[in-house]
Design a protein that fits this description.
Number of helices: 11
Strand order of the largest sheet: 1-2
Shape: globular
Order of helices and strands: HEEHHEEHHHEEHHHHH
Strand content: 5-15%
Distance between the termini: 44 Å
Length: 254
Amino acid sequence: MTQKLLMRACRLVRVEAPLYLALSASSPFLDSQVTGYHSTRWGLFPQTPTDVPLFTSHAHHIQWVEDQLAAGTMQNVRHLWTSVRPNGDRRPYDLNRLELRICDLVTNPISLLAITAFIEARLWQLLAHPKLDPLVCSTFSPSSLVEITKNNEVAAATLSLDAKLTHWQDGRSIVARDWIEEIYSQVWDISKQKGFSCFLSPLVKILTEGNEAEQWLRLNSCGFDPRQVINYAQVAMAERELELEDKLCPSLLA
């Protein structure tokens, strides 16, 4: 992937990062208490530096990182803690990958594969349709897109799939779950053509049954305290791993 394509991908994934947080939220408790967040991790995450622009080019990224190092707002080139960042063997100069850092821990391997397939399908769509670049098809300036994304991240950390977000293209209000469904319908054919639609399809189950945070909060609302909910989740995780092991690796149990 060229640097130009990589930066374009970083821009799209960054403005849609709240959707991946909404799918993966799994930290509604802290110190055995309900925190008010579906993702306490991201709600409290110390993003550094405080203001990270939507990089318009690789050169812009290089200059910005050098400026932060000179100003002391970054201690080193790794000191960039934000939802999405480009990475490589000699950053910021040699870049070869995109890191999505906003997601909570996803304990269900099938759900994790579905979220990963969702991201991959969206990137294939971007490669086929470069005008999906937020710098091209948004009515907002880059600085306004950053503000919209920050607000969307807070909303997704709080209510995940039920969060009301602002669409980066035209500013309309849209619930995270509905936005994800829109993109899912757009990328389904792409995932089928590329041969991984079977991994994408379980995304529907997350949208229907809720992410882990939503499932745990439902149990809490039924009278189970956070410690009981987590204990239940641990047992369910162990049972699920045994079930998958039995299906995927039967020879190990022989």
